[in-house]
Amino acid sequence: MSNKLRKGDPVIVITGNDKGKTGKILSCDEKRVVVEGVNIRKKHMKKKQENQRSQIIDIEAPVDLSNVKYCHDGKPFKLRVKEGKNGRELFILDNGKEVVIRQIKQGKSK
Q1: What is the pTM of this model?
Q2: Half-sphere CA count of 25, side-chain side, radius 13 A
Q3: Dihedral angle at the C-alpha atoms of 25, 29, 32, 36, nearest 10 degrees?
């Protein structure tokens, strides 16, 4: 299964401790995504230089791709791919209307 989500896409968390939170994707991997403001963890940082202090910082940890869905107007939607006028398009069905999200580039065929 190809990953249809990209960096910058708005998503909503559908399961887990942060269920219902929304945010933009900061980075993507094959099976994990980092979402802004979701799955916050504490990290203890040692001082690196003489004039620094050690500190505790908050970082966003990765979330499994199956735990997020594309968000449009605050509601989760399933992304679909089909042939459109200008090639393959990624779209959602909102109240029976197709809302095109973006064009999908054609990959190299073997």
Answers
A1: 0.78
A2: 23
A3: -20
Could you read off the pLDDT of 45-80 as tens digits, one per residue? 999 899 999 999 999 999 999 999 999 888 888 888
H-helix segments, 19-92: none
Rounded CA gap, 11 and 23, in Å? 6
Residue 2, in any domain of the structure: no
Find where tokens 């249809």 sit: 4
Q: Is the Cα dihedral 70, 74, 77, 80 positive or negative?
A: negative
Does residue 79 lie within any of the structural domains?
A: yes
Structural domain for 83, as ranges: 10-46+56-103
Domain count, the chain: 1
Angle (CA) 13 97 100, round 5°: 65
* 109 inside domain: no
